[in-house]
Amino acid sequence: MLTLTSVTAGYGESTVLRSVDFTVGEGEVVALLGPNGAGKTTLLRTAAGFVRPRDGRVEFCGEDLSGAPPHSFTRRGVCHLPEGRGIFPSLTVRENLAVQAGQARSRRLGEAVAEVAELFPVLGDCLGLAAGSLSGGEQQMLALSRAYLTRPKLVLVDEASLGLAPLIVDKIYDALSRLVERGMSLVVVEQYVQRALELATTVYILSRGEIVHSGDAKAIQPDEIYEKYLGIES
After folding, report:
1. CA 62/CA 77 separation, integer angstroms
2. SS3 of 172, please?
3. Which of 97, 128, 211, 218 is most buried, judging by how many CB atoms fall within 10 Å of its CB?
4. Taking CA 50 as the corner, what is the angle to CA 32 and CA 58, rounded to the nearest 5 degrees?
């Protein structure tokens, strides 16, 4: 579905990704792990069209989208959920859902609100509140609702659990699991290695802009990742 071939990318004169090969198959869940500054966010941004590769190819469903703008990726079924929630904080929850429903085109606002309220009941009670006034967990739920309403082929999730309490992280991962059940492919950048591996079928580890490991997510242990790739003694 998604293929990055020998992709080199960065910002200005800074190179972040170096000859990266990365693939995501239909219905596959990929955990993208690595230390801070490894280039994980840049890889997701490149895969969504926000960063143009200097070299290499970015293909989605067999189509070369190297250098295409973000809306080209979105129209073809890529949903990028960035670190930092990715919502409109000055708009109400209902207005955010209206924007998301508009992206889906065929979805009516009432239908969108009902679906999100069923998935995240707390949001159904906050429709008139400014999205920026919600807790971090509620904002993440609102961000995730876009994937449910637009029904993309591929969802790129950057640090969905960042700064959230464990109970809220459980709810977020329940929601991610439901996306998988609906047949969507996922790429998950995550600080909680164990949670990512439990959800994923495949793991890639990125270090200093290069892929240093790829394979079956069930064939590697968190302790090995911490010690061998993240430099943390368990």
Report:
1. 13
2. helix
3. 97
4. 65
Residue 81 contacts by C-beta under 8 Å, 6 or more apart in sequence?
143, 144, 146, 147, 155, 156, 157, 158, 160
Q: What is the pTM of this model?
A: 0.93
pLDDT tens digits, residue range 154-165? Answer: 999 999 998 899
Q: How many CA atoms lie within 13 A of 198 on its CB side?
A: 9
Which residue ranges does the chain devote to CATH 3.40.50.300? 1-77+153-234
Side-chain-facing half-sphere of 188: CA atoms under 13 Å: 33
CB 161 within 8 A of CB 195: yes
- For 38, 124, 129, 185, the CA distances from 48, given in Å and listed in that order, are 18, 30, 30, 14
Which residues does residue 215 pair with via DSSP β-bridges, in sequence order? 203
**Cβ contacts of 100 within 8 Å, gap of 6 or more:** 112, 145, 146, 149, 150
pLDDT in tens, 194-230: 999 999 999 999 999 999 999 999 999 988 888 877 7
**Phi, psi (degrees; rounded to nearest 5) at 213:** -160, 140
The architecture (CATH level 2) of 1-77+153-234 comes to 3-Layer(aba) Sandwich (3.40)
Phi, psi of 143, deg, nearest 5: -65, -45
| Sheet strand arrangement including 14-24 | 14-24, 2-11, 55-60, 63-64
